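Reviewers asked in the last cycle whether our approach scales beyond single polypeptides. To address this, we selected a multi-component target totalling 625 residues and predicted its structure end to end. The input consisted of the following lines:
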Amino acid sequence: MRVVIAEDLALLRDGLIRLLSAYGFEVVEAVDNGPSLSRALLEHRPDVAVVDVRLPPTFTDEGLRAALDARRAIPGLPVLVLSQHVEQLYARELLSDSSGGIGYLLKDRVSDVKQFVEAVRRVADGGTALDPDVVSQLLTRRSREEPLKALTPREREVLELMAEGRSNAAIAGKMFVTEKAVTKHTANIFAKLGLPVSEDDNRRVLAVLAYLHA
Amino acid sequence: MAGLAVGRSLLQALLAQIANLPLAILLGVSLALVPLGVGLALLPPVLLAVRGLANQQRRWAKEWSGVEIPVPYRPRPADASGFGRVKWLLTDPATWRDMLWTLVNSVLGVVLAGLPSALVVYGLEGVLVAPWLYSLHSFGWGPFWPLGDYGPPGAIGCLLLGSVLVLTGWLGGPPIMRAYALVNRSMLGPTRARLEERVRELTATRSETVDASAAELRRIERDLHDGAQARLVALSMHIGLAEQMVKDDPDEAVRLLIEARQASGTALTELRDLVRGIHPPVLAERGLPGGVQALALTLPLPVNVTVDLPGRAAPPVESAAYFAVAEMLANTVKHAGAERAWVDVRHNGTALVMIVGDDGRGGADPSRGTGMRGITRRLAAFDGTMAVTSPEGGPTVVTMELPCALSSPKI
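The resulting structure, written as structure tokens, was:
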């Protein structure tokens, strides 16, 4: 799998290259600033890009903007955005074209190597990987509202994991229940929120996120 | 340049008649009605209108003649409703000087500022109109030229004199307008007493600001010392232990490494919260519009945000503005019991105006609560002000103003 990395801190950039190479990714280019990132994304059209939000030269949201621009040029280009802090505002912008292949995680999550690599793969496959911090903020914000109040604690847990972008199998593994039980929960959640049921994992996640962001 | 001055002279003369004179009369009436009480209600709007006119003159003096007239008014107090407002206006010496100016200017605006345009208009009449009417009799002085008595030589005299007058008005325009601006400065600028008072204000807000930032640094030092720093020590200890054990007891080593990773996660979370409290990253990345929008999205109630800024304010101002809005919204969430809230941020030419409102139960008291006091202090460092209206039963509307200029428009 071909990947482009954008990170301005040399230590972290080398760490990411080593980590992803160890898990069988081919790092086609690692850049340290916004303009190079824009060029690299269009030139290599990687299977997935791992991008830091804040990059030189302006040290603002250079990386995020480059990623969003590249996705306008190459629709659905998988991008996993890393940041020292997560913002609902950025999550919203990343998910706004609702074509999937989006990840948005705190940099800390890299420390859980297995989960991180799984997230990169998921994004490369057109799936979603949203930081638990973003999801829990979304749910706290909406928790006063009617359809969400009607969820059982168990269903809420499933909803949270689903919003992070996990498949039914992954949710079942994480909650120590059978996949069948999870399927039942998701069906209930979709009924209570009034969302159309879909067999496809990715499309389901996007529906949930669109609902939560509305 | 000179042509502009003539147009401006005409504008000033007209303004002195249609705005200044009526205001002077209204002022007199309001003052006369003060003993009856009615005047007290009438005075504030009239005085504020006078201030508006005076401020316009201050701007023109700078733009047209390069004469800088600082605004001498005292800052608007937090409690600027009803009697508080009357007191704020009437105890300000600048108000009384404004009144004097209104009276003087209704004459001076015509006689001095209007002079260049009068010369040009009368001169033009002498050149373009009068010479062709010399056969008519009984023209007198005044707006007309004395022709009838002198015949054709009179008409030639008209042409010559008219040209001289036009030229005088045309060339004399800029210096005359400048003289007018200087006279205005003597009446509209701050007095020495006001400057001394200003020094006292600045000394007070400066020491408050210094105290507050020292306390803030102390807090950050404590947070780092007891938080992240301590956790990093524990972290390196865990890793060191794991290093020792990796051969003899690999299972225990793995357990220690997992603990170390968790400790690093906690340290990072603490650092993140600390950074957010010092300067929110999204504010650095997106400026005030993005910062306020991102803030609104984290609150448990719908917040309607409108930000309309043609450029960016200086970073310290942005930061003060952000934390002021954040504190008000936090109060709304904690105390107001509101269904929804709204934030409106715009720039009125001289100041950043931030309005935060909600549909909650009202009854907010700016003098209670350390948060509000902290914000008042933070705003005061920039000569900013805050006004709260929050009747029992709501709604609550907080208006904050931060004087500042905006930098060039966003790229």
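The mean pLDDT of chain A is 90. We regard this as preliminary and will revisit it once experimental data from Aim 1 are available.
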